[in-house]
Amino acid sequence: MTMTIRVGVIGMGQMGTHHAEIYKKLPLVELVAVCEYNDDRRKEAEQQFDVVAYKDYKEMLANPDIDAVSIVLPDNIHREAVEVAVANNKHILLEKPLAKTLEDGQAMYEITKDYEKVFTTGFLLRFDPRYNMVKQALDSGELGDIIHLYCRRNSPITGPKRYIGASDLSMHVMIHDIDYINWYMGCNPVKVFAKGRSVLLKEHGMQDVIYAIVTYENGAIACLEACWVLPENSPTSIDDKLELVGTKGVAYVESSDNGVRFISDKRIQYPDTRHWYYTNGEVAGDLAEELMAFINNIIHGTKSIITPKESLDSLRVVDAIERSLAEGKEVGM
């Protein structure tokens, strides 16, 4: 008898819609429900995916016919949704970060660390071949021990305008890099010093740019740059970079929006070719790999490569960055 995983998606914004589209194309998966608080978006999703559309995720999670859920809600309301999903014994894929606050993250860690079902946080770059290849080179010893690394993740101001009040730069953008750096280092961060500036987003109480220096137990230093106020007409949606220097070699990751460019009277654009691009009308790329890994864990009874502790550890660095910004000095972890 072939197993079919019955899946629901909570939150039908841009990313939630991508999740639903990917589930629709996966074998052994049936998208059976979506949930969206906004009435217009809920009606659109119901028509687009031809599934039951809930307004209240508690009602959806109480449905015993749903095996697994993607939770794609604003960062500041993750905790209750995860608590309800765990109470209803669902497999859970939670879009990063774990939570907006360390207090919520710690509470969520406590209920998921020994959870029998699959629980994972959607750190997309774990499934990006570029960043994964660097991890493989480190694990094989090819690069030796990490001396230092520098990374950046910059994007247009259209992003934070969607997240006003729900998130900020460190926890929504920089945390992608924090996660894979912790993964690379294989030891705990011990000190953080951060500086930020707020100009274009000042009225919303959000940072425009953050620079952070994180020191690890092994002595390695990571320098992180994140900015999300590039112009709205920026030709690239994500400007990311990594330079890692080890005792035996170096590794470089260049900007994600490479490989194809369009210059016409309609646009100047270097589109995303890795994260959630469309091929033959279907979403492909890192996000599809992430969701496939989630389903594969469910089918085979295995755990995600991204553990609850790793999700919490990333949030601990975010918390330290925010404390350093507020105190104007280096802080301990």
Short description:
By secondary structure, the chain is of the alpha/beta class.
Give a structural overview.
This protein is of the alpha/beta class. It contains ten helices and 17 strands. It has helices at 14-25, 39-49, 57-61, 78-87, 102-112, 129-139, 158-162, 169-185, 286-300, 308-327; strands at residues 5-10, 29-35, 52-54, 68-71, 91-95, 119-122, 146-156, 189-197, 209-216, 221-230, 239-246, 250-253, 262-263, 268-269, 278-279, 282-283, 331-332. A seven-stranded mixed sheet has the order 12-11-7-10-9-8-17. Helix 4 runs parallel beside helix 5, helix 5 packs antiparallel against helix 10 (308-327) and helix 8 (169-185) crosses helix 10. The longest helix has 20 residues, at 308-327. The chain is globular, with a radius of gyration of 20 Å. It starts with a strand and ends with a strand. The model has no long low-confidence stretch (mean pLDDT 95).
Task: Give the key terms.
six-stranded parallel β-sheet, alpha/beta, 333 residues, 35% helix
Low-confidence stretches: none
Overall pLDDT score? 95
Determine the number of helices (DSSP H or I, runs of at least 4 residues).
Answer: 10
Main sheet makeup: 7 strands, mixed
Structure classification: alpha/beta
Distance between the termini: 50 Å
Q: Quick one: overall form?
A: globular
Strand content: 25-35%
List how many beta strands DSSP finds. 17
Order of helices and strands: EHEHEHEHEHEHEHHEEEEEEEEEHHE
As a percent range, the share of helical residues equals: 25-40%
Radius of gyration: 20 Å
